[in-house]
What we know:
The chain has 248 residues and is of the alpha/beta class. The chain is built from eight helices and seven strands; from the N terminus they run H-H-E-H-E-E-H-H-E-H-E-H-E-H-E.
Amino acid sequence: MSISWTRTDAPPAPAPPTSAPPTRPPESAPPPRTTQALTTTQGPASTADGSLAAVESHLDDVLPALASLRGQAGRLTAWGEELARRLLGGHRLLVAGNGGSAAEAQHLTAELVGRFDGERVPFSALALHAESSAMSAIANDYGFEEVFARQVRAHGRAGDILLLLSTSGRSPNLARAAEAASGLHIATWALTGRAPNPLAALCGEAVAIDAGPASAQECHLIAIHAVCRAFDAQLARLAPGSISERRS
């Protein structure tokens, strides 16, 4: 005799599906991308905030500033020629400035250590404000007014030239540097904004631009290039072997 077992606790068999599973509706295609053109408006609409008028006013200010500089072309020429004589004689140019004037002063040293407009031998020129560690140490120990004067006493020698740039002519640290140089028989030149100003009065010679700070600073760069032009011309006369033709 055979015995069959039937499990009574088994779950009931699933009922057959009565309908198909729901399907995901197809996604609609994204709308095409559109590119919005960036347009600028010229004419009356662009002048509503006075921007164009401000730009034109700035450019207009450059012309009288440049005329002021041109009236001192003789001094710029003399500076370039004297700089050539002294650097050929083994002396050095020291320069200093604050902010934008520091950048322009360093531009001059780059033209002398490197080159301006033609191949030539390098010359010794130091931008005192580029000595960041020395500046911070001096400022910390002696005060910011001494950051250039102490370097002048360290690096300067009789016969050197110190050129100081300032649009206001009223920076105490530049004034201290001029005073330090005078005591060491170092020639002092100033490139400033409107005169009279304290720095121009302290230095042996000055080129003062009769203009506001921005226009004066722009003319300072032109003055630097003019001095470099006279410098190279004097080198060609005094030491023809030290300089070649200008680059095209």
